[in-house]
Amino acid sequence: MSKRWKTSTSTVYNVCYHIIWCPKYRRKVLEGDVEIRLKELLHDKAEELEVEIEEMEVMPDHLHLFVNASPALAPHHIVQQFKGLTSRRLREEFPSLKSRLPSLWTRSYYIETIGHISEDTIRQYIKDQKNH
User: Fold this and answer.
1) How confident is the model at residue 1 (pLDDT cuts 50, 70, 90)?
2) What is the distance between the alpha carbons of residues 5 and 59, in angstroms, rounded to a whole number?
3) Quick count: other Cβ atoms within 10 Å of Cβ 45?
4) What pTM was estimated for this model as a whole?
5) How far is the C-alpha of 78 from the C-alpha of 4, rounded, in Å?
6) Active-site residue, from 13, 17, 109, 125
7) What does the pLDDT read at residue 132?
């Protein structure tokens, strides 16, 4: 089976998400030691959740994650877990974050499902099923 697909006892899947979120007020606080620690915490939480971080880029005022997850995990749950842990731990470990921000992250985030096959291809495949 291709590396692209994962399997469980009853499922073959490839579920990926592009996730973006920002610090409160889009403050540029994700630099230096905070950035390094944020990446460590995200990798630890991903391992715990059995989510693979395929790509990650931390900018001073936002971050991008490309993750592969089980279809049994709700995307909102993944984001909650990542944001909750990192907010709590980073604010404990870096007191300057507490004094600059009432909470580390905004409540919002961006998420998009990502697939290997384009939406147009899927639509056409479904339309063509009766012709086979």
Assistant:
1) very low
2) 30
3) 19
4) 0.87
5) 20
6) 125
7) 64
